[in-house]
Amino acid sequence: MLFKLIGRLPSVTEPARALASRAVPLVAFVSTLVCAADLRAQEPDWDSIEIRTIQVAEGLYMLMGRGGNIGLSVGEDGAFLVDDQYAPLTDKILAAIAAVTSEPVKFVLNTHWHGDHTGGNENLGQAGAMIVAHDNVRRRMNPEQVRDLVGRSDQAPADALPVVTFSDEITFHWNDERLHTFHVAHAHTDGDAIIWFANANAVHMGDTFFRGRYPFVDVESGGAIQGVIAAGCTSDVLLFSSPLTETVANTLSR
Question: What superfamily would CATH give domain 2-30+50-248?
């Protein structure tokens, strides 16, 4: 989920109480993400799914298809993706990217490990993109590291695994933008990341925010409702909102 903010985002390391006193208006570019039941639904008709491109700011777009919405930063440095939905949609996603930039995808940043956010990793990794995520995303995509915890037996292909991981935060200086990425512990999962596009003043929250529905907490993947609340559903991000909050887009992504 990608938001466009009006006003500046305070430091993510500030206590929530300090943030509460600095609430500013928020313009949200949002769409409701796929729910848990949808993840278990029958195989979609991939041919019928279209990728919709919404410009959020100069050089920043949201791509909507099926699953978690994709953040796209474009510029001379190359395309930078936040999440990549499902493998059967990669060609359509690349076509949508090609419509706004001729540069290749250089980075893919996963907000967490679920398949509707990492399903295109293998395709994009094989095409040369560097995949980045929190430490726990790689652990959960590599069950040798988490089998005792969650009992998973399916191993993600090597090309789908993040090759760069971080434990707390990481900043990318890319396309004349500063992408400040920080981990929120035990929220939707135990590997969630929120990305703030500082110059565009926009934030991608992955699945730590669900609009118009109760959030899905993946307890088996280390998620907890307390962490979801702390991550943004009612605190760190929504503290920046006010009665002036305007919903610009609200399209169900299914």
Answer: Ribonuclease Z/Hydroxyacylglutathione hydrolase-like (3.60.15.10)
